């Protein structure tokens, strides 16, 4: 005699097969569930709400940093030019232009990629690439390596920007959005 146990959403049934014919027992099988200190529903809701606000703060901070990084270099351009003993015009301008061109070139592609594989991995990859690009920019010993580091940093900025527009809708409920945007 073969026994098969099928779990339903509401109860468990045992099905016994005898000589090719299946007979279902209509009596539910009693199961003993031992749960030690289950988390309360309110705790889970509060934790979910806190995570949403943390994600929004992280998103806003990343957006601020990538926007700031696109324009703050303008202030330091004369100092950068004198450090590398080059003029302000010419190759030095590519520090700014390269960053912005890379963002504009790959932003839509990364947005589509975020739709396909998810926003969270794209955002986290963007943060890592942006931070690495910032570190490489700070450690660059030559103008060429600084420009290449800024291009790499632009890829991170594009990854961040590609999901930042949809982040508030993704992590907030309708009530939170109305309070957030007025």
How many helix segments?
6
Radius of gyration of CA atoms, rounded to a whole number: 28 Å
Biggest sheet features: 3 strands, antiparallel
The average pLDDT score comes to 77
- Spatially, the strands of the biggest sheet line up as 1-2-3
Alpha-carbon distance between the termini?
Answer: 67 Å
Count of extended strands: 3
Low-confidence sequence ranges = 12-16, 20-27
In terms of structural class, how would the helical and strand content be classed?
Answer: mainly alpha
Q: What would you say this structure looks like, in words?
A:
The structure is a single chain. The protein has 182 residues and is mainly alpha-helical. It is built from six helices and three strands; from the N terminus they run βββαααααα. It has helices at residues 41-83, 94-117, 119-139, 143-164, 167-171, 174-181, and strands at 2-7, 12-18, 21-24. Strand 2 and strand 3 form a beta hairpin. Helix 1 (41-83) runs antiparallel to helix 4 (143-164) and helix 3 runs antiparallel to helix 4. The radius of gyration is 28 Å and the shape is elongated. The protein starts with a strand and ends with a helix. The relative contact order is 0.11.
